[in-house]
Give the backbone structure.
Amino acid sequence: MNFYSIRHLTRFRYAQPVSESIMEVRMHPRTDEAQHCLSFSLSVSPRCRVFSYRDHYGNNVQHFDIPGEHSQLVILAESLIEQHPVQPLPTALATSAWQELADLVEDGDYGEMLLPSQFTQNSAALKQLAAELRVSRGEDPLTAARELTESLYRYFEYVPRSTRVDSPIDEAILSRKGVCQDFTHTMIALLRSLGIPARYVSGYLYRGSDDHDRSTPDATHAWVEALLPGLNWIGFDPTNNLVAGSRHIRTAIGRDYADVPPTHGIFRGDADSDLYVAVQVEASSTAPVLDRRQHVPDDWTVLVERAREAPPRPAQSAMTQIVQQQQ
C-alpha cells in the first residue's frame, strides 16, 4: 500500500485586470477499488465560494465564479491518496476473448467509448499510421493493447509543448512527436477501430528515484483505459510504455481530453494571459498529513514554477476560454 500527497498549483496572470472569471476544475482524484482519495481541498485566490458536483462519468468537479476585477487567478489543489497494489495481468487472454468482448459490448453501455470523439476522429493520417504500425486484432484484446502501447511509444518522440491543447491528433502523427495527450488520443482512436472500448484518463504519475519515465514529472498526466473481458477497465500508458499501476493516480475519465481538462474556464476582459502550472507528487509508506496552514507566497518559492506553457492567443473583449494542456 502506498500513500501519495499531491499539490497542483495553477496560476493565470493577466496583462490587465479582467472583470470576471468563471472556472470549472477537475483535480479531485477518484475513489475506486484500488484508489481511495482520503482528503481533498481547493484554495482559490481571489477568494470565492466553490461549488461541487459529479458529472455523468462520476468525476468530481468544482466550479466557481469570480465577478470582481482581478489581475491573476490562483488555484491550489491538495490531495491525499491511498493506493492499493494492482493485481498483475495475465500474459494473454484466450482466443475466445474477442467474442467475449463483443458480447460484453452488446450487453453493456459502452457505445460512446467506441465512437470517434472530438479529439479521436478518423482521418487519413490515422489510417496511414495504423497501416505503418500494422495495427490488427491479433490473438486477443490484451495482447493487441500491449502491442499498440509499445508501438506508439516507439513511434512518437516525447517533446513537451510540441502541440497545443486543442491540436488534432493528425498534428502529432505527421510530426511523429507530441505529449501524453497526443499519445493517448491516438491510442484511443486505434483501439476503438479494433472494436475495443477505450477512454481517456486524466491524473498524475508518481516518479520515484528508480523510475525512468520520459513524461514530465511536474505536470499532469494522461493515459488510456481499455475494456477487456474478465479484467474490466485496464490502464495503458503509451507515453512511457507501461501498464498503469499503483504509480498512476486517476483524477477523471471521459471520451477524450474535452471531457476532463484539469481547468476549463472563461474570463471577461481584453488582456493577454500567462499560464503557469506546477505539480508536486510525494510518496510515503504511511499516511502523510497535509499542512493546511501553509500558504503559497507571492514569489512562488513553495512550488517552483515548472511545466511552463506558452500563453494562449490574445484575449478578445468578450469571454475568452482558458484551459491547460496535459504534458
About this structure: The chain has two domains: 2-83+260-323, 97-259. Confidence is low (pLDDT under 50) at residues 294-317.
